[in-house]
């Protein structure tokens, strides 16, 4: 008797070679795999009061047959069997398709239980299942599994049931007793059985609770182990910067830092000082003052004798950052340079030479910064703005640039905490959760497109005061399609005509050549153009403090976080600013989203709401986001457990006993299997 759950599935009764082959297609190879193939939902056979059942919902009811069944045939073999059923105070119709054999069993007065789809208007259940007799309370929930090929859900239920009678007692625990006790979690053996054969909703809840924790803990263990490995295996530089110069630089700023800014600066500088390599995410709402923080850290690395690099997603942003960082840093003797695709020929060669010789202290640009031809003398700190736009590939190139610079990722899209600790679970996170004092909240209004006239009157009132306005049309910059490009062109033409001889209207979109983009931005930033019609290319970072009005066309087509980013282009000066959302949303969710925008200016609140309304998969857009897939757990709804599991994982990884004591052996085996320690699956 040496059987184990690691045996091939053919060891299970009823599974022959053919079935086994089909199961292999579903990645079920061993008995263990089969036992751990969990249902993704349950068929609910609990009795319901029809009053509470929605149209087209599946429902189970019990009732007494009220009429003799009528059987009709149509087509060759198709039949329809109809009865009237008295269920509680309802007299309803029940229809069975293609089950003529039921007819003799359905006699008047007989009690039956039917399950099917409820048509509220016709008061009819299209019953797919019929059980003669009372509702049986034993089988209120049936598991539903994902299946493939020739495997059916019913078949799978049978295989799993057989597997349990043969192997159920051999399922081993993988969580240490102390954690099971602390959280009162079910033993693995019992929890697995209940997931497959639950008697009640409560069973499912309890069993699920255990697996949610298990899944999160395993995942977080992997992330924390990865973090440990990255720290210990990557030699950092342990930067010794000149604290006095850094402080003096902070003293030159026209404002005191907020508490939050002070805190994150300290967190980052401590990392840079440490012998480990920094891998940190800095998040803060638009306008919370991340650029200043970046400037201080760059200044620090330069005082330690290193160079700094700042990577941003667009050239417009690169130029803006260059302007503001030059203004801040050059008076303190820092040499700042900008590298974009329009720096060409001799100028480019000279710039690259100065970089290699160390004459340039700080280089700013798009991800062109990390291309082959760009060589730093000694890179100490790399900051990337709008982190999620840089893919895994760029991060790898950065790692392979030879040097071991500290890395700081900045993002202005506040990432809901639950995503931050899953997607960026192996990183440290600093958060600026406070706005500089004296900011006026942006007033946000939601208007229908037909109100455009009134809105233009309002815009003009602001322009008369000497202010400026953005008008944004939806369009995603990388995939500018012609029809939506037309949209921006049309709006631009319309406004040019409307404001003719009074105000100049600029036009900006991703298809413009780089030098034209520069010119347009330049004209807007010095108020030669008072209105800028643009696609979302101005979404990130653009800073024109005199602009006080943001009008967004078709606002329902943007996500909340993106709308918030766009809105963040105004409210950057001391004047009251306004954001007007032009939208005719068709759905309730769409209306809800517009309403939320008018109610809050807090990017963290909006990002949580966005996650709730759109789900984690959509949060980062379609691009590869590194979102893990959980079988049972749901990052959004189970976030409390996620937090707890993360803390537990961190404690475990940091403790001595985790690496030696027997009770943690299953967890260590699991980590071994993920490849974290061999570096196979890094990233
Ligand atoms: P972010 O990049 O986080 O959106 P910025 O760094 O561009 O924000 O800062 C927005 C504006 O706030 C800038 O004009 C900046 O000079 C100003 N600012 C930053 N920190 C402070 C502060 N502590 N007090 C007052 N103003 C600040
Ligand atoms: Mg910024």
Tell me what you see in this structure:
The chain has 683 residues and is of the alpha/beta class. It folds into 4 domains: 1-45 and 140-171, no CATH class; 51-139, Nucleic acid-binding proteins (OB fold (Dihydrolipoamide Acetyltransferase, E2P)), CATH 2.40.50; 243-432, Rossmann fold (3-Layer(aba) Sandwich), CATH 3.40.50; 443-600, Rossmann fold (3-Layer(aba) Sandwich). It is built from 23 helices and 21 strands. A 7-stranded parallel beta sheet has the order 11-12-10-13-14-9-15, sandwiched between helices. The chain has a 6-stranded parallel beta sheet with strand order 16-21-20-17-19-18, with helices on both faces. Bound molecules: adenosine-5'-diphosphate (ADP) and magnesium ion. Residues 290-291, 412, 541 line the site of magnesium ion (MG). GO terms for molecular function: 3'-5' DNA helicase activity; ATP binding; ATP hydrolysis activity; DNA binding.
